[in-house]
Amino acid sequence: MVNKVKPAEGWPVIKGEYEVGNPENPVAVSTCGSHVKGASQLTAGAAITGPQKTENLGIEKIVANVISNPNIRFLLVTGAEVKGHISGEAMVMFHKNGIRDNRVVGATGAIPYIENLPDEAVKRFQTQVVEVVNMIGIEDEDAIVAKVKELAAKDPGALSTEPAIIPELETEEDAEEDVEIAVHIPRRTRPAILAC
């Protein structure tokens, strides 16, 4: 029996367009620009599955949700690539090469710039995720489920460390609260706030 740990309180910590399964499962699935039904992937061994449409904020959200759950050890990147953004390739390159000057090394998309992940989060993701499986272009659910099962069978157990939280990233709820507050700020003070 492999070691399992409790993910961060309220996991997934960043809200998004995804389906959540058992947080002890070892696989996360990015379906890039495709909306592949996730129910069978979740029962096959995925902890979380959903689309990743951008090569910047999409990566940041995936990293935040993965490193806040040390049970996730594999990332399956599948589905149709997003034209222009090329988000799947960016995710693969991010894991393989990291970032330099905020740019994902080796990514060819329009804006593969990571602004909100500290170096520690990048290194943690690269350490925790033992394999990123590139199935970009595959939308066949049977093939995806088969790969999830294969990866789940190789589960090395949770990374032996605490869940990591990236305080710089806001949840969508936090962002909505900020917008509400900003609406009530007198106009003369807005430029100073926007310049921050």
UniProtKB/TrEMBL annotation:
Main location: membrane
GO molecular function: cobalt ion binding; tetrahydromethanopterin S-methyltransferase activity
GO BP: methanogenesis, from carbon dioxide; methylation; one-carbon metabolic process
Required cofactor names: 5-hydroxybenzimidazolylcob(I)amide
Pathway: One-carbon metabolism; methanogenesis from CO(2); methyl-coenzyme M from 5,10-methylene-5,6,7,8-tetrahydromethanopterin: step 2/2
Compartments in which it is found: Cell membrane
Cellular component GO terms, alphabetical: plasma membrane
Record-listed E.C. numbers: 7.2.1.4
UniProt key word Glycoprotein: no
Pfam families on file: MtrA
Stretches assigned to coiled coil: none
Top EC class of this enzyme: translocase
Binding positions for 5-hydroxybenzimidazolylcob(I)amide per the UniProt entry: H85
Keywords of the record: Cell membrane, Cobalt, Membrane, Methanogenesis, Methyltransferase, One-carbon metabolism, Transferase, Translocase, Transmembrane, Transmembrane helix
Membrane topology reported for the UniProt record: Single-pass membrane protein
Catalytic activity: 5-methyl-5,6,7,8-tetrahydromethanopterin + coenzyme M + 2 Na(+)(in) = 5,6,7,8-tetrahydromethanopterin + methyl-coenzyme M + 2 Na(+)(out)
Cofactor binding annotation: Binds 1 5-hydroxybenzimidazolylcobamide group.
Function comment: Part of a complex that catalyzes the formation of methyl-coenzyme M and tetrahydromethanopterin from coenzyme M and methyl-tetrahydromethanopterin. This is an energy-conserving, sodium-ion translocating step.
Assembly description: The complex is composed of 8 subunits; MtrA, MtrB, MtrC, MtrD, MtrE, MtrF, MtrG and MtrH.
NCBIfam families named among the record's database cross-references: mtrA, PRK00964.1-4
Family statement: Belongs to the MtrA family.
The protein's name in its UniProt record: Tetrahydromethanopterin S-methyltransferase subunit A
Organism for this UniProt entry: Candidatus Methanoperedens nitratireducens
Species lineage: Archaea, Methanobacteriati, Methanobacteriota, Stenosarchaea group, Methanomicrobia
Gene it is expressed from: mtrA_1
